[in-house]
Amino acid sequence: MMEELANLGLIYPGSRIGVLLIHGLTGTPKELSALARDLNRYGFTVFCPLLAGHCSSEAELLQTTWRDWLGSVDKAFQALSKHADAIFAGGISAGAVLSLRLAQSRPGQLRGLGLYSTTLRWDGWSIPRLSFLLPLILRLPYLGRRYRFEENYPYGLKNDRLRARIHALMMSGDASLAGFSGTPGQSLRELWRLVDLAKAGLPGLKTPTLLIHARDDDIASIRNALYIQKHIGGPSRLVALESSYHMITIDQERQKVGFESARYFFDQLTADEQRELAAKAKDPDLISGLALAGEFQERRPADLLKGLSKRRYWVRGGRGPKASDPKAK
Q1: Mean pLDDT confidence for 24-34
Q2: Closest residue by Cα to residue 211 from 65, 58, 104, 99
Q3: Of 57, 110, 31, nearest to 268 (Cα)?
Q4: pLDDT exceeding 90 applies to what percent of the chain?
Q5: Cα–Cα distance between 80 and 170 in angstroms, integer?
Q6: Which residues have a Cβ under 8 Å from the Cβ of 34 and sit 6 or more positions away?
Q7: What is the number of alpha carbons within 13 Å of residue 72 lying toward its C-beta?
Q8: Cα 170 from Cα 98, distance rounded (Å)
Q9: Is 287 exposed, middle or buried (0-12, 13-18, 19+ CB in 10 A)?
Q10: What is the pTM of this model?
Q11: Where does 2-328 sit in CATH, by number?
Q12: Side-chain half-sphere of 76: how many Cα atoms within 13 Å?
């Protein structure tokens, strides 16, 4: 199993309960490695595949479409299926959209979904004011081919030290370390096509779905998660984070992301599957902690949106919000 799956991405062997985790557009499987290790400690076999065109060069990325990315996900699902009796799928940002599309294309074959910082619209507080003109710009023959969306401060991370380290890796020129520093316009167009398909298929999707999203997401506001919860056809749970930005799988509340994911996936398993998972857990107390966790309390959409504007504050000179702004800390 290690050799077969390692050729497609990162693999963390465990029980025959599998989790497929999908990285974001221009990202890398490493952005999911912390979550993967957490879930593996609970006994899950976790697989983080590499999407077509990623971790090499932008020229290679531009040779791919959303169909190629989804093809990578489907190939990874088939490979993991040989070694798992039950499979969950999830992803961050555009990876969450790919997870949705995988579930829609394989009805009844996934036990559940974990959607992290789902990006249907780029409407977070760091997105430039005139971003609503982007679809028009990308349709222009000259500008559309040359447009490149550059990553903005704070690069999806609230943790200062981690932000500095990840930004340095992004600027290093080695896309395998932390992905690209920007997104080509052509790839954005492909993502929007994928988003349209995923949104259209939401009412017919019955797969139990966990959504985890930061209330202060700088890239995609929590309205993205609320849209999915409102339109999806199956049961869902929304966990809102209070001290993270977009990259919640590596930011300050990554341990909570791991626990809530393990708890939700555990609840979707049969009693026999739960025992099988427990047999592979790194520590028996981890599983008992899931079983004894209190009942989840869903927060009202109005409460999640309270205090949030369409743009909470604007990036100033590439340095982010003013230091005097209490929301900046």
Answers
A1: 91
A2: 99
A3: 110
A4: 60
A5: 30
A6: 249, 250, 254, 258
A7: 24
A8: 23
A9: buried
A10: 0.87
A11: 3.40.50.1820
A12: 33
Angle among Cα 226, 228, 232 to the nearest 5 degrees reads 130
Tokens of 210: 């966990």
The H or E element spanning position 305 is helix 301-305
Length of the chain: 329
Q: What is the DSSP secondary-structure string of 186-246? A: HHHHHHHHHHHHHHHTSTT--S-EEEEEETT-SSS-THHHHHHHHH-SS-EEEEEESS--S
DSSP letters spanning 273-293? HHHHHHHH-S-HHHHHHHHHP
Domain boundaries, the chain: 2-328
95-148: per-residue pLDDT in tens? 999 999 999 999 999 999 999 999 998 888 887 665 655 666 666 565 556 666
Q: In which region does residue 179 sit, left (phi positive, over 0), alpha (psi from -120 to 50) or beta (all else)? A: left
Contact indicator for 94, 24 with CB cutoff of 8 Å: yes
Please report the pLDDT score of residue 327 as a whole number: 42
Q: What average pLDDT does the structure give for the chain? A: 85
What is the edge-to-edge ordering of all strands in the sheet holding 112-116?
9-12, 45-49, 17-22, 86-92, 112-116, 209-214, 236-241
CA atoms within 13 A on the CB side of 224: 30
DSSP state of 52: T
Task: Name the CA radius of gyration of the chain, rounded.
Answer: 19
pLDDT tens digits for 166-178?
767 666 555 555 5
Number of H helices, E strands in the chain: 15, 9
Please identify which residue in the block is written with the tokens 């992803």: 91
